Amino acid sequence: MAQIKKRSGSWQARIQWMDTDGKRHSKSKAGFKTKRLAQMWATEQEAKLNQGVNIEREISLYDYYVHWVDTYKAPKVSDVSMVRYRTTQQNILDFFGKKDIKKITRTEYQAFINWYGANHAPSSVQKINGFIRACVQSAILDDYLIKDFTQGVALVANQKRVVAVEYLNLSEIQKLLTATRAGLNPHFTSRYMIITAIYTGMRLSEIQGLTWKDIDFLHQTINIDKSWDAVKHEFKPTKNPSSVRKIKINPQLISILRQLREATSSTMVYINQYGTIPTSGAVNRTLRTILGSVGITKRNFHFHSLRHSHVALLLANGIDIYAISKRLGHSNIKTTANTYAYLIDEYKDQTDKQIIKALENL
User: Which of 22, 341, 306 is nearest to 177 (CA)?
Assistant: First the structure.
């Protein structure tokens, strides 16, 4: 039961309760101008107690976010991902300071998104919103909050900050493959990694982490169950559980990998003559050199763009988007559809013709 008293010209409210162990607690607040305001505060606090919220616990959004990242993310995400989480941490501090997480409203969070989105691309806004939404959901589970103040917020972004990437068309992909194969040398494995990316759509860290045990020459498959930490020079888990997969590979790639296998005694597939696995910088330099040698200039095209090239090859040959999603190791088909929407639209006419042909055969 709440106690409402008037002291020194203002009103004070005090509530008391017992926890599950029988221990008595109380919380009070003074300075209300009217008795009604004091009663409203007490009623609100009691309602929170009834909903399981520990009203004694107070923490800022910033401090809870730091706790959440350190507890749930730091032990399992990559160093690259941690940089993004820590950057978001600073963004929260810059905008909200040490404001109590309970006092942040949906309107204030929308203002934060508007502020951040004014100078960031849509993908960056989606990323930071995803981080904070997950953090807020955790705070609700920990009884710091009742409502999710991130729900229903409109994502605002600066379209001018979108980095446009020019991708290869099918004939350019063939030119790149031909030029890359022509310069193969087992002492320098970057070219082998480029060919592997085109033929498999694997991520760079997945390619870097391949061992010969992962290559099944008989059944023509690659088993992907780990990736490579280029900073620590050690294996690490795949990006997510769905990235663990086994994919079929074509005879051309099998032949190229056989040649490389015969030239090395290492357990790692892409070890070069220096006893190291080419880094992102090394493979991108090689990629730019090969593209330049065949007269191909593409803005912002880099090694990861070869994953897009692989998808283009599959779509051009009528491969189902669900099969592509599984091959890429995406957690769900929505991720694939969103990431490669521009390619899916590009091949829509071809798909429509296949649909009409199928219907005509009824």
Answer: 306
Taking Cα atoms as reference points, which of 107, 106, 126 lies closest to residue 116?
A: 126
**Nearest of 179, 173, 192, 165 to residue 312 by alpha carbon:** 173
Q: Which two tokens stand for residue 255?
A: 């032949």
Per-residue pLDDT tens over the stretch 296-334: 999 889 999 999 889 888 888 888 888 999 999 988 888
| Helix (H) or strand (E) run with residue 48 in it | helix 35-50
List beta partners, residue 25.
17
Residue type at position 124 = S
> pLDDT tens-digit profile of 161-216?
776 678 888 899 999 999 999 999 999 999 999 999 999 999 999 999 999 999 99
Quote the CA–CA distance of 184 and 17 in Å, as a whole number: 75
Q: Alpha helices, DSSP H only, in 122-233?
A: 122-141, 170-182, 190-200, 204-208
Q: Which residue has the tokens 């763009």?
A: 305
For residue 32, pLDDT over 70 is answered with yes
Q: Which candidate, 64, 233, 211, places its Cα nearest to that of 145?
A: 64
Looking at the chain, the number of H-run helices and the number of E-run strands are: 15, 8
Q: What is the pLDDT of residue 93?
A: 96
Q: Is the Cβ–Cβ distance between 70 and 89 less than 8 Å?
A: no
- Is the pLDDT at 337 greater than 90? The verdict is no
* Amino acid making up residue 347: Y
CA distance 125 to 114: 9
The pLDDT value recorded for residue 158 is 87
Q: Domains in the chain, ordered, with CATH? A: 3-50 (no CATH), 61-161 (1.10.150.130), 170-315 (1.10.443.10)
**pTM of the model as a whole:** 0.68
CB burial readout 19-50, b (16+ within 10 A) else e:
eeeeeeeeebeeebeeeeebeebbeebeebbe
